[in-house]
Amino acid sequence: MRIGVLDVGSQAVNLVVTETGARPDRKKAFPARSWKVRTYVAKRIASDGTIDGRGRDLVTSAVASAMDRARRAGVDEIFAYGTAAIRDCPNRDQMLGAIEDRAGIRLGALSGIEEAELTFLAARSWLGRDAGQMLLLDIGGGTLEVASGEGQVPLRALSLPMGAGRLTREFLDDGDPPSNAAVRRLHRHVRGQLREVVQPSDWPVPRSVVAASRTFYQLSRLTGAVPMRHGQHRPRFVQRKALRKWIERLSRLPTDKRQHLPGVSAHRAHQILAGAIVAYELLEAFGEDSARICPWGLREGILLRRLAEEAVPVEDRWSAARALWTPSPWSQRCLAPV
């Protein structure tokens, strides 16, 4: 059986396809084919989180193209979902309706905690059992996810409305570059939010600290990591001390200058400063000097969970999933034939 994951995010629509007989090997690339179309819908989000008409058209067109690609690829089953940009926008029902009318599929939604758990599964699978106790950090466009544990399922997981895109709109919109006062306000906000949820005694140490997401990868490039084309298993880290210096530099640069920095893409340049501030304050709150970059994330976590279910007889899949995971309605809601 050929299965797919369709991820509708704030920057792009991503389709990943793999076979149910495939088994991931952390020493190699994930056994899947992928396709992407950039929508840059983050630039079409108003200060209240609403996606404008042009953004809606871009997303619906991209999802329709992805579904056509999935059909031509022979996908039997697809898991389609919207991330925080879609899930949390005030005009979500309009967005979902337009997508369903154009593409013929109703997007599901994962909660922030489910995203944290699935991304944790991907990072655990990529690092292997040698990682021991693991702390996962994931900065998205709309939310921040943190999870911790030593098995495939995290013992603690949380999701906070502190994504790089969201915080840029809420705190750094007074100029390009933003004012020093705006940057200080964002530091205080992130630090205050983290103090409420990060109590050192609740998060075991020692631990392997892992960072997933394009934001963290681009920050690692800024702080000296080699590009991914040199191999996904070359160790890459984002360094807290180096981040501090880069925050000062980024806060003085306009967006059109940031996009020429190492690893910073044009479509994320406007929010890389907010991402750097969140990453720095996260590492500071946990008392960590660095985090290792993991190239696998939410999409791989969804595929891994589905592949785990495929490994047992159909009648036992849900009981096996419950043994591996706390059951949630997302599979019934989003996993559907193409």
From TrEMBL:
CDD domains: ASKHA_NBD_MtPPX1-like. Keywords: Hydrolase. One of its GO terms (molecular function) is pyrophosphatase activity. Pfam families: Ppx-GppA. Residues 41-308 form the Ppx/GppA phosphatase N-terminal domain. PANTHER family: EXOPOLYPHOSPHATASE (PTHR30005), RETROGRADE REGULATION PROTEIN 2 (PTHR30005:SF0). Belongs to the GppA/Ppx family. This is Exopolyphosphatase/guanosine-5'-triphosphate, 3'-diphosphate pyrophosphatase. It comes from Actinoplanes lutulentus.
